[in-house]
């Protein structure tokens, strides 16, 4: 059986949904599980909606109307008036109406997951209805009953035993009869609340299903020809990798190559399932295959750019050395606030860490750290990682930039620049 994952870019409009149907049809005769993300930039819009609700902003209804209009305009290009999918989508949006009717409470992450998840619940209903209209037999599965997580909202931790049991109990029989369509990015708690697996987590969903079902392969259908040595949004003159080892793919995603979610590779590597990254605009193109025994060929360094970085400089209030005890306290605060450290350095009097910026988490982090330490920070920075770098490539990437922090080892160079 095959697992396909279609991300937001592939279903950003009606043409995308039609194309998705054609891609799946071209694999007729295979058992296929299709994981779908929210359409286009819907998750970002739902994040704005969540913030507007929590802060009780005036533009709350306007943001919600725009999200609904965007989906209804896609629906009206695909389905005749009166098709049952209009009601299905409307009923799904009603869940947001219910959520925002009440006064917001304190648990931002919980509210976030209940609202933001609607993007995938809507997109899968639309894709499933499109398959059926096109004569492709399919069933839409509510992933929240299959991917079981703890209640770490916004970063649900998968309970693999429970998840495997649920998936193996039902999904193979369903795949005998039809295509199965399900939501990426979402999970469910034992109390039946919705969780999300972390931004861009739909790739991970595909790899969870593939691992549990012993899939032949996973294909993620993207708006790029495959995995390139750098993000084409920032660099011209990129090259595509025909194949990559699991190890290299894990390293690339760990450093922030956003083409694949970092948690995706491990479940596939563990079960030796290949991951194909292919362009949805040209399904017969080879793309990139990540597989056991792949030979990496780096004719150019791999460049990974992470924007919106903050450099935090933490020191004691009384000029004492930064000791292991201080570091342990600092890391405790990072862990509590789910802050990932991308790069760090210590000196006698200070500890410096480069972290991702997230408004709500950063405010809390800063407040907690300031209870025990002096904290200074620089924001709006960029972290660039070069894998398989050369001295000249490092010079070129930093030319004309202010380098605030730099670290190199045999394989990898990292610079924080302004
Ligand atoms: N090394 C890379 N190779 C290819 N694409 C990359 C790379 N690094 C970042 N990207 C970005 O990843 C995007 C595709 O991933 P993503 O946006 O997550 O797709 P989707 O959400 O549709 O699954 C591309 O549009 C590209 O800008
Ligand atoms: N919709 C979610 C999950 C996801 O994986 O999306 P995409 O496949 O479009 O990156 C997000 O934007 O975070």
DSSP strand (E) fraction? 15-25%
This entry's quaternary arrangement is single chain
Rg, Cα atoms, Å = 23 Å
DSSP helix fraction: 25-40%
Secondary-structure content class = alpha/beta
Query: What is CATH's topology name of the largest domain?
Result: Carbamate kinase
Count of β-strands:
16
Superfamily at the CATH H level of the largest domain?
Acetylglutamate kinase-like
**Which small molecules are bound?**
adenosine-5'-diphosphate, aspartyl phosphate
What is the terminal-to-terminal distance? 47 Å
Q: Note poorly predicted spans.
A: none
CATH top level of the largest domain? Alpha Beta
Number of domains: 2
Describe the structure.
Helix content is 39%, strand content 22%. The model has no long low-confidence stretch (mean pLDDT 96). The protein has an eight-stranded mixed β-sheet, sandwiched between helices. Helix 2 packs across helix 5 (108-116). The protein has 418 residues and is of the alpha/beta class. It has 13 helices and 16 strands. Bound molecules: adenosine-5'-diphosphate and aspartyl phosphate. Adenosine-5'-diphosphate binds next to loops. GO terms for molecular function: aspartate kinase activity; ATP binding. It comes from Mucilaginibacter terrenus.
